[in-house]
């Protein structure tokens, strides 16, 4: 679906351009019975695709920006960041046998209710607000997760608004949380098109797809993420906005239980997005984020 959107945009922008789609399965696509936090390392949704790109088997690669490591393989660059859609996280209520969605909000979920999530970041923020809830892991694409919810005894599921809206499933949303409050993954809601650094022809073709504001805000978020150095086992979120020539970033880091959760924010001129990201990261580390990172590092296999 995401690749088709980019392909359609390229065809519409460049008359007569032939675009062929090739599906490449990644480790994250294949190992659906394993929690993302246990797959180990970064790039579980990008590695195989990047290998094909470097081998010149494909000319460009479309990723959800939130899935991309902050450091790219040598020889690859982000050629375009598409216009960002809704970056918010949402609560999705279960549907009954007739397809009626059961209305629910974070405030109305019963004590001890089962809530599904495949994200440690969402889990931590949810438990920080409602420590009584029972959050269980779920994997798969959006449709698979919805089906698992509807077949289970869970009351709700946490997802990104963008994925539901892209599939025409926004009706399943029971409650939307503002991304400045319930912080999304860095880059959530934006697509990144990765290309070979020396391929100037493809980079020129992608130029009309590159959205300045989306590239700017996600750059601030990804700078913060890179400075924190957290991997898939660290609950980290960030959301930046740009207005009147200034960028404002809110960042978050939490422990796995959501008991300790720290937020920081900073703003600056659009020319200083990297500095803004660095400032937020340093504030989070000083608040207690460094202790969280140390603790999670000790929990990783082979540590100590």
Keywords, separated by commas or semicolons:
single chain, 304 residues, alpha+beta, D-Maltodextrin-Binding Protein, domain 2, 2 domains, five-stranded mixed β-sheet, three-stranded antiparallel β-sheet, 9 helices, 11 strands, globular
The rounded Rg comes to 19 Å
Helix content: 25-40%
Strand order of the largest sheet: 5-4-6-3-7
Quaternary structure: single chain
| Span between termini | 43 Å
Structural class: alpha+beta
Secondary structure: number of strands: 11
Overall mean pLDDT: 90
Number of helices: 9
Beta-strand content: 15-25%
**What is the assigned CATH homologous superfamily of the largest domain?**
Periplasmic binding protein-like II
Question: Uncertain runs with pLDDT below 50, 5 residues or more?
Answer: none
Could you say how many structural domains there are in total?
Answer: 2
CATH class of the largest domain: Alpha Beta
Shape: globular
In short:
The protein is α+β, with helices and mostly antiparallel strands and 304 residues long. Helix content is 33%, strand content 21%.
Please give a structural write-up.
- The protein has 304 residues and is an alpha+beta fold.
- The protein folds into two domains: 2-85 and 185-299, D-Maltodextrin-Binding Protein, domain 2, CATH 3.40.190; 89-176, D-Maltodextrin-Binding Protein, domain 2.
- 33% of the residues lie in helices and 21% in strands.
- The chain contains nine helices and eleven strands.
- It has helices spanning 2-13, 27-30, 47-54, 120-129, 142-151, 161-166, 200-206, 212-228, 273-299; strands spanning 61-64, 76-81, 89-93, 114-117, 134-137, 156-160, 173-176, 191-196, 236-243, 246-254, 261-269.
- The strands form three sheets. A five-stranded mixed beta sheet has the order 5-4-6-3-7, sandwiched between helices.
- Helix 8 runs parallel beside helix 9 (273-299).
- It is globular.
- It starts with a helix and ends in a 5-residue tail after the last helix.
């Amino acid at each position: 679906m995401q690749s088709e959107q980019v392909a359609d945009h390229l065809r519409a922008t460049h008359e007569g351009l032939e675009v062929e789609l090739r599906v490449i399965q990644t480790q994250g696509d294949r190992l659906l019975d394993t929690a993302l936090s246990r797959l180990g390392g970064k790039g579980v949704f990008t590695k195989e695709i990047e290998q094909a790109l470097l081998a010149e088997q494909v000319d460009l690669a479309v990723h959800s920006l939130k899935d991309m490591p902050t450091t790219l393989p040598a020889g690859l660059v982000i050629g375009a960041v598409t216009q960002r859609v809704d970056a918010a996280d949402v609560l999705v209520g279960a549907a009954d046998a007739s397809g009626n969605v059961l209305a629910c909000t974070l405030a109305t979920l019963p004590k001890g209710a089962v809530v599904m999530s495949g994200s440690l970041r969402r889990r931590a923020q949810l438990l920080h607000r409602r420590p009584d809830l029972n959050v269980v892991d779920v994997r798969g694409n959006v449709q698979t997760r919805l089906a698992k919810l509807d077949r289970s005894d869970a009351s709700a599921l946490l997802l990104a608004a963008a994925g539901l809206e892209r599939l025409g499933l926004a009706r399943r949303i029971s409650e939307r949380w503002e991304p400045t409050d319930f912080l999304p993954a860095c880059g959530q809601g934006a697509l990144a098109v990765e290309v070979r650094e020396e391929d100037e022809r493809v980079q020129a073709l992608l130029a009309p797809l590159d959205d300045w504001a989306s590239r700017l805000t996600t750059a601030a978020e990804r700078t913060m993420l890179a400075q924190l150095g957290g991997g898939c086992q660290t609950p980290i979120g960030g959301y930046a906005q740009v207005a009147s020539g200034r960028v404002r970033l809110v960042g978050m880091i939490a422990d796995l239980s959501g008991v300790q959760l720290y937020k920081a924010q900073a703003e600056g001129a659009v020319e200083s997005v990297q500095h803004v990201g660095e400032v937020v990261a340093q504030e989070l580390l000083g608040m207690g984020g460094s202790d969280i990172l140390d603790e999670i590092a000790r929990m990783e296999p082979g540590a100590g």
